[in-house]
Amino acid sequence: MTTEATTSTATWQGNEHYRRSWYWYDWANSAYVTTTATVLFTPYLTAVAEAAACPGLADGQTCRTNLHVLGVGIAPGSVAPFTITLATIVSAVALIFVGAIADRSPRPARLLGGFALVGSIAACLMALVRGTNWQLGVVLLIVANLSLGASLVVYDSILCRIASPDDRDKVSSRGWALGYLGGGLLLAVNFLMLSKPDVLGLDRGGAVRASMLMAGLWWAGFSLIPVIGMWRLRGVERPEVARTAGIVGGSLRQLASTFRELRLFPQTMLFLIAYLFFNDGIQTVIGQSSLYGQRELGFPETTMLTLFLMVQFVGFGGALLFGRLAQRYGAWRTVLWGLVLWTGVVVFAYFVPDRQVVPLFVLGVAIGLVLGGTQALSRSLYSQLVPKDREAEFFSLYQAMERGTSWFGTLTFGLVYQWTGSYRPAIVALAVFFVVGGALLARVDMRRGILDAGNALPHVV
Fold it and tell me: What residue stretches are annotated with the Major facilitator superfamily (MFS) profile domain (predicted)?
């Protein structure tokens, strides 16, 4: 095989060099996801919003004054979850168009690089958010999350082109594991910076902003490895479409076709609905856990950084462990077991006592074990259900569920806090997403869905 060969004629063995490059995008974007989106930016944006609403607020005090946006009062503690909600609603529409365009792109790695560049620039600019300028933080968070989701539409669709059905669980799990390792390494550096900011001549706020800048630069720099390594990987060519429509018109036609065709794949549709629910729960736990730990449980930022650092390295092992379990029992069963564990995690989180480190770290170990495994296997599981040569379009629906329509969880979290003034009922309310998502996933007939999509059955379904 030459490097110019399309994926339709390439052998799986010949794609090994593409797989080695592909793994690195998990490593690249995980720095932003871990350091900025998960650990630092949510409580930082909350503090900036509180400074705007309640000037002179002392440490440990709760701001009870609302901010006003378009005449609507918003509690400063709800700004971050509501921003993520808005970002995901915007993405719900945008990512589906990205998928239609990506499947028509002759060079998917270049498209991946473009989205990664925009997202990493927004991530770097978060270092400029300070004082009371919470509005800039809101805009940058929306741009960064949208760009991340768009890049992952392209990235996930490439998995179908470079890995055989029997290898996808393993390849996807290795990518997630590498992502946790990379995110953990940068988080360890950031932890040292935040523990001793005076060594660098910074205050705590300056150390937070410097850490977010590093995460953006890490995302941009390491994205070069998959972009360059897969530079000559070709997309799916459709000359019959190209003759009648341009990139925009053809993409719109493809988009309409995708929605029509989705009805022909009922198992794929059922999986997406199930994924909508249980991924809502996962994404909300990831995005709001730092806020929960600091604002509800009373742990300092350094303790939360230590916790997330541990979760990253436990997640590395958890992703590989779930990959091994999937090879033996099948990804579908393994993900179902993972959702049972997730339900237990959020219920346990409700009962974690204030400022009690041991229960907190027990919770962190449980999260690390199931976090990467369920996400990695969900990606490979869905890859078996998408029709050949329509990968990016169908993965745009997957990303729309993951980062586009995954707003029920953050909305629920924000509303429960708005109504109760406590994050404890907000965190336990997320259990319903895992229960409903698991019940729907249990009804998916994987064997039938794979065959309906025209794909080969893996040895273990």
Answer: 267-461
Chain center to CA of 38: 10
Tell which residue, 425, 430, 460, has the closest CA to residue 446: 460
What 3-state class would DSSP assign to 237? coil
The stretches of 384-460 forming alpha helices (DSSP H) are: 391-399, 408-420, 424-428, 431-441, 446-452
Count of alpha carbons within 13 Å of 113, Cβ hemisphere only? 16
b/e sequence 350-386, b meaning 16+ C-beta within 10 Å: bebeeeeeeebeebbebbbbbbbbbbbbbbbbbbbbb
Element (H, E) at 72: strand 72-74
Residue 5 backbone zone (phi > 0: left; psi -120 to 50: alpha; other: beta): beta
> Alpha-carbon distance 85 to 352, whole Å?
26
pLDDT for residue 241 is more than 50:
no
CB 352 within 8 A of CB 359: yes
* Residue 72 φ/ψ, nearest 5 degrees: -105, 130
What stretches of 36-106 show up as alpha helix (H) in DSSP? 41-53, 79-102
Indicate the CATH number for domain 21-452: 1.20.1250.20
Cα(39)–Cα(291) distance, integer angstroms: 8
pTM: 0.79
Reduce the DSSP state of residue 2 to 3 states and report it: coil
| pLDDT tens by residue, 59-115 | 666 677 778 777 778 888 888 888 887 887 788 778 877 877 776 777 888 999 999
Looking at residue 456, the DSSP 8-state letter turns out to be P
- Residues 165/167/169/174 CA torsion (nearest 10 deg): -150
Q: How far, in Å, CA of 393 to CA of 397, rounded?
A: 7
